[in-house]
Specification:
single chain, about 140 residues, alpha+beta, 3 strands, Glyas_Bleomycin-R_OHBP_Dase
């Protein structure tokens, strides 16, 4: 989570509005709009139950959309990221903020400037009871 917060701090320090981190049960994600207007997502599984890739990754389905087995193996086991901490930069104010444009403005104006603690509470998600986790 520290690495995710460090990336959020870096983005916010450069004027980007960052939505999250939001818990999805199996991971935490944060969203922002890149300079070209595309919505971006960073996520981590740190602090979440370990999920077995075999239950979530279908090599045959991936192949139908042009993902090679080599690329799929790399996606399942990405290289490590080395950060220096994070979590202290607040969301930028609305003036001059680089807005995550794919998030509808009414939703962003309601949630986008909440404190991180308030957003986490508003977006709390619990995994389904029957969700399978690795042991």
């Amino acid at each position: 989570m520290a690495e995710l917060l460090e990336m959020r701090d870096r983005l916010r320090s450069n004027g980007y509005a960052v939505f999250g981190p939001v818990s999805h049960g199996m991971n935490y994600s944060m969203y922002f709009s890149g300079p070209e207007g595309l919505q971006m997502e960073y996520s981590t599984t740190e602090g979440c139950p370990k999920v077995e890739p075999k239950g979530w990754v279908d090599a045959e389905a991936a192949g139908t959309i042009g993902i090679s087995r080599e690329d799929l193996a790399r996606f399942v086991n990405p290289p490590a990221f080395t950060g220096k901490g994070g979590g202290e930069v607040p969301q930028p104010s609305g003036d001059g903020t680089i807005n995550p444009s794919p998030i509808p403005e009414p939703m962003f104006s309601q949630l986008g400037y909440l404190s991180d603690a308030d957003l986490a509470e508003a977006m709390r998600f619990a995994a389904p009871e029957n969700a399978e986790h690795a042991h």
